[in-house]
Amino acid sequence: MLDVQNIRKDFPILNRTVNGKPLIYFDNAATSQTPQQVIDVIVDYYTNYNANIHRGVHSLSQEATDAYEQARVKIQKHFNAKHSHEIIYTSGTTHGINLVANGFSSLLKKGDEIIVSALEHHSNIVPWQMLCERTGASLKVIPMNENGELILSEFDALLNDNTKLVFVNHISNALGTINPIEYIIEKAHQFGAAVLVDGAQSCPHIKPDVQALDVDFYVCSAHKLCGPTGVGTLYGKEAWLNKLPPYQGGGEMIAEVSFEKTTYAALPHKFEAGTPNICGGIAFGAAIDYMNNIGFDNIAQYEHDLLEYGTEQLLKIEGVKIYGTAKEKTSVISFNVGNIHPYDIGTILDKMGIAVRTGHHCAQPIMDFYNIPGTVRASFMFYNTKAEIDSFISALKKAIMMLS
Ligand code: PMP
Fold first, then answer.
1. I want to staple 247 with a disulfide (CB 3.0 to 4.6 A). Which of 99, 111, 175, 400 is the partner?
2. What is the pLDDT of residues 240-294, one digit of tens each?
3. What is the pTM of this model?
4. For residue 95, which atom of ligand 1 is closest to its CA?
């Protein structure tokens, strides 16, 4: 059981007001809030041991390097990766996906096929389209049904010996659908295709076991799981990471440089050119500690209750249509009310201190599927409460009255 009232004390931002009203933060799928424990780690870094890593002989540099590498091991353990050098620091999910897409430029040829799903965020579509343009490979799409679930029989039919890569998110940011990645990975492997899972939305709710999943690449962003922005991770199987060429050239990623020839550093540094987000990496480790202390099973159970309660309350309001009613779903509710534009609802809710997301959520193909411009999206984390949902529902009713 979660002690939510105590947990809320960890998040100073939850005490603020917006437009004179107590903040109700339901935009967690865009970015989560940061607990004091993580803020303290950031302040401690800049107060006491800010220095560049892997370079200096001096004490500060050593302390920063140690903390940064210890955080890498925390991330490794959290993902249950076999080796810490399979954990590549990135600036976030988008960076991780682009790193892999760029690496496959030299491994794909005309006639090869890439499969993505209809439920992807733009950052798991556009890099693969760019990869297809560079290589002549073609992009196939696993379609979805009205409930926002992938149609697996169609996925099976898309697989063939030309399939080289499959990309799918673990959880859809626009609808909350939890995708059956175990099935997708197993099937793709039967055809020798590599699988990248976009874990941006799953990592705040599920602890992924990359070895049990046998996934080839798994990416996420720290800011979705109570960490800072501008840092994330790419997990890659050692053999794949050794096969892919470096993404960016520069300092830190080399073994030897001369004007005739440069050799690259071993993993993970081969993919970590330049000065990284050192403080961010250390704080990412602290965020993982924080989430694990609460416990992912507790988090899943509590958020599921919030999802059920929120869905029930919303459906009592006339004209509400919820998009994405998959059986396996996380705490995201995407909805519209009659013909009211989602932006108008979002603007009025903000006047009442309530933060929701409106628009296409960087997933325009999903909006096209439902033939709508966008939705209002309320997404919950473990620090939200049923009382907040009640306030949201009465504010929404007021907004609907004003807009009808
Ligand atoms: N994929 C999904 C499913 C997401 O929800 C997001 C963030 N909204 C991203 C990718 C991109 O993450 P970032 O902006 O942190 O790189």
1. 99
2. 999 999 999 998 888 999 999 999 999 999 999 999 999 999 999 999 999 999 9
3. 0.97
4. 16
The CA-based angle 328-333-336, given to 5 degrees, is 130
Atom of ligand 1 nearest to the CA of 221: 15
Assign 79 a pLDDT band (cuts: 50, 70, 90): very high
Give, rounded to a whole angstrom, the gap between the first and last alpha carbons of the chain: 41
Q: Whose CA is nearest to atom 8 of ligand 1?
A: 30
93 Cβ closer than 6 Å to some ligand 1 atom: yes
Domain 39-292 has CATH 2.30.30.140: no
Q: How far is the CA of 311 from the centre of ligand 1 (A)?
A: 24
Which residues in 63-90 are b (16+ Cβ under 10 Å) and which e?
bbbebbbebbebbbebbebeebbbbbbb
Model confidence pLDDT, tens digit, residues 318-352: 999 999 999 999 999 999 999 999 999 999 999 99
Q: 4-30+295-403 in CATH: which number?
A: 3.90.1150.10
Q: Please tell me if the CB atom of residue 200 comes closer than 6 angstroms to any atom of ligand 1.
A: yes
Active site residue 279: no
| Domain positions in the chain | 4-30+295-403, 39-292
In this prediction, the answer to ipTM > 0.95 reads: yes
Which candidate, 186, 221, 176, 175, places its Cα nearest to that of 75? 221
Q: Which of 132, 203, 220, 362 is catalytic?
A: 362
